[in-house]
Specification:
Elements lengths: L2 H18 L6 H29 L11 H8 L6 H8 L4 H13 L15 H24 L1
Length: 145
């Protein structure tokens, strides 16, 4: 399989986990949230690899990087710079994935009176929607280059 197929496969798996989430703070639901986020991250990572294959002569190798650093390196590509930079910053969906994983892993955050927005079905659907738009835009640009 090539990167594009892996990216799509993990995205489909994330959607399957999303359909089973209840957000009831049970152990099994928290595990499913982590599985959703892990599949989402894997899809994003393979998508980064897909883009890298088209520009591997222009930037340093990214195969040893984690997901976020892959996208930081890809943001050095002039054609994609503005689009990718926006998503790796604090309000971008790539950082929101890490934030969501932290919320699931750190149960003590649920006991705080003041906290960031908790993980919800709406939030996870919004992340997937942003990712789909991001992916479609970058793939369209790849085909035009």
């Amino acid at each position: 399989m090539e990167e594009k197929e892996f990216s799509n496969l993990y995205e489909d798996m994330a959607k399957e986990f999303l359909s089973s989430l209840k957000f009831d703070n049970s152990v099994s639901d928290n595990n499913n949230q982590l599985l959703f986020l892990s599949c989402f991250e894997n899809s994003l990572s393979y998508f980064a690899d897909e883009i890298y294959e088209n520009f591997k002569n222009d930037i340093d190798a990214i195969d040893k990087f984690n997901n976020l650093n892959k996208w930081r390196e890809l943001s050095k590509i002039k054609v994609f710079s503005n689009i990718i930079s926006e998503e790796i910053e604090n309000n971008g969906f790539i950082n929101q994935i890490n934030d969501s994983k932290y919320k699931v892993a750190d149960n003590s955050i649920q006991n705080l009176i003041i906290s960031n927005e908790s993980n919800t079905l709406k939030k996870f659907n919004l992340l997937l929607d942003k990712y789909k738009t991001f992916k479609d835009l970058l793939r369209k640009m790849l085909h035009e280059c």
